[in-house]
């Protein structure tokens, strides 16, 4: 936007001041105060948005701990969207951990005790018969581009949180606005309350969700399907974002619906995409190819499997390997050790079958008393070039493991991605020391640079999904794509990888700095939309050359604009 927008607003007086979308607080001009009946409702001084941000930041800093800061910011969001997003945008690196991981996990764990007001749409299994009526009542008259939903079975490393899942859906929607410019008035956060198996919640008299064990099987699938079909019917061009579903449902639901609607699962696709981008930049440093790598994935849950599949898709689309050839590059380990045939069907999930290793290739390798082959034995035999951790098993990449890996490759690529930081598989400084400074590193949480011999520092990249998923979703919405295809995700991933500082300086980070996330996600979105137009999955009539201009015009920005009173209704 090069000029200040003008909005025609129907609200007046107290109704205007209590609308988070339209409230300006002390920033209402003298003319606006008169036109909207605000004289006497506000103090004399007229503040700029910068003034308000400075005041709000002072108030924020007065809070003693991160959870209280999270609560303060949530209250601000309930009062004034522009101020909320402007403040966070000015302190992005500092405040993202407050409104998202790790602090949001604490807020979600305490959701019922912190509850003050609704922050989205609550769909409960016991009210399945009236779901359509309830959905339409709460979305009536709204133009929705983004729906973020969660059943809260696997929240941010803290597991099953029941109705508290609305917190992660709301946080994800917020990140889409902050980093991609999605209009917050066109986003919908949904919790799908199908019960909880968290005994602490079930025993808590203040728990505000449905106090019942989780629904499974056909009943669960029917409930989820009814919701998805409502989104498809009423908002056919929206992005439906699945968040923090459990390992038995995350990939299954993604595969079920990805050809029917533009759906996205950040735990599966977002984690995989940002990891692929990170490894692509590492491969650029080593002057090799993706197809030359040997991948050991430690942790084969939703994230680990999503990473594996995204890397496999990269091998297929970028280096033209067949799916079968690409699958052979991966060695997955879960709680039963290496995923191989002799574990049997009781220990191998259906989703892992295409990555099961044969027993013949592991003859002569020592297994434990349960017949399981551990990480060190796998590393010694495979000599991986890439070691990825998404296990939440703190310290799993021991000195023996890392040194064994360093013997098999000149520049080991090591990614301990588990969150929060206390659950990381190895400290970056240790991995750096044990490889004599040769490791290429990225982590799931921010870490300081590694000290190198001679006083140099190695910048550790933060492999943060927020560097890519807002852009992937924004690009799909911008192009009105009918689906979010693998090739669209690969295009966004390649654009992110091309922005890596390490491609210019091998001692720099494998991914862009998180402070640059808004600009980075815009580039990702442009690449996604261009690919959608190229491959014919877009629903827009404009040309590929128009994408950048259209993307910038489509973005919502936290600015107030000028208000004109229009009793017939609000519009831009």
From TrEMBL:
InterPro entries: Aminoacid_DH-like_N_sf (IPR046346), Malic_enzyme_CS (IPR015884), Malic_N_dom (IPR012301), Malic_N_dom_sf (IPR037062), Malic_NAD-bd (IPR012302), Malic_OxRdtase (IPR001891), NAD(P)-bd_dom_sf (IPR036291)
Pfam name, any one: Malic_M
SUPFAM superfamilies in the cross-refs: Aminoacid dehydrogenase-like, N-terminal domain, NAD(P)-binding Rossmann-fold domains
Cofactor requirements of the protein: Mn(2+); Mg(2+)
GO biological process, one term: malate metabolic process
Keyword match Phosphoprotein: no
UniProt KW keywords: Metal-binding, NAD, Oxidoreductase
Record-annotated Malic enzyme NAD-binding domain positions: 268-533
Active site per UniProt: 100 (proton donor), 172 (proton acceptor)
Gene Ontology CC terms: cytosol; mitochondrion
Cofactor note: Divalent metal cations. Prefers magnesium or manganese.
Sites where the protein binds (S)-malate: 419, 464
GO molecular function: malate dehydrogenase (decarboxylating) (NAD+) activity; metal ion binding; NAD binding
Residues in Malic enzyme N-terminal domain copies: 77-258
Family: Belongs to the malic enzymes family.
Name used for this protein in its record: Malic enzyme
Species the sequence originates in: Steccherinum ochraceum
